[in-house]
Amino acid sequence: MWCPTLRRPRTLVAMSTKARTDVERTRWLTQREQGAWIALSGVMIKLPSALDAQLQRDSGLTMFEYFVLSGLSMAENRTMQMGELAAYVSGSQSRLSNVIKRLEQRNAVRREPCPTNARYTHAILTDEGWDLVVAAAPGHVRAVRRLVFDGMTREQVVALREVAKHILDRADPDTAWP
């Protein structure tokens, strides 16, 4: 980010040679970029919290749990290999395993060995899990519409998708984003 205090000679002199070199070589954000970054940072912090609060209040689910159930609800036979599900929900294997354990305790999901390769485990959405995600979906969609899409033009929606995909491709180039 552009930072006027780092441009003052007195501040640079007090820095180590490496730090001073880093400061001098850094391609600082323009004011326009800094404004965009601050806005995006706010979205990254506030939007997940708002969506998580809505899901917790209305359905007793975290946003991550909802994404797991939603992903399984859209999968063929409501079944996904655990590694594929972790990638789908952008979570680590250990985080997913802990969430699946909690969802199993609610009878929303069950795990079974892959019938064609015992090294893999499948997560399967149960009827109770289906009912849970179906009941949670309308409130979640209303919150997403209210917080994200209401008031946006079609062009803004297209631009949002393109910008988000660009960022995701840079952050995780091994994942194919929709």
Describe this structure in words.
The chain is mainly alpha-helical. 65% of the residues lie in helices and 7% in strands. The protein contains 8 helices and 3 strands; from the N terminus they run H-H-H-H-E-H-H-E-E-H-H. The chain has a 3-stranded antiparallel sheet with strand order 1-3-2. The protein is globular. The two termini are 30 Å apart.
Spatial separation of the terminal alpha carbons: 30 Å
Q: How many distinct helices? A: 8
Please state the CA-atom Rg, rounded to the nearest Å. 22 Å
What is the beta-strand fraction?
Answer: 5-15%
Measured as a percent range, the helix fraction is: 55-70%
Shape: globular
Low-confidence stretches: none
Going by helix content, strand content and strand pairing, the class is mainly alpha
Outline the biggest β-sheet.
3 strands, antiparallel
The helix/strand series, from N terminus to C terminus, equals HHHHEHHEEHH
Overall number of strands: 3
Question: Could you give the topology of this structure?
Answer:
Layout: H1 9-13, H2 17-25, H3 31-59, H4 63-74, E1 79-81, H5 82-88, H6 93-105, E2 109-113, E3 121-125, H7 127-149, H8 154-171
Antiparallel strand pairs: 1-3, 2-3
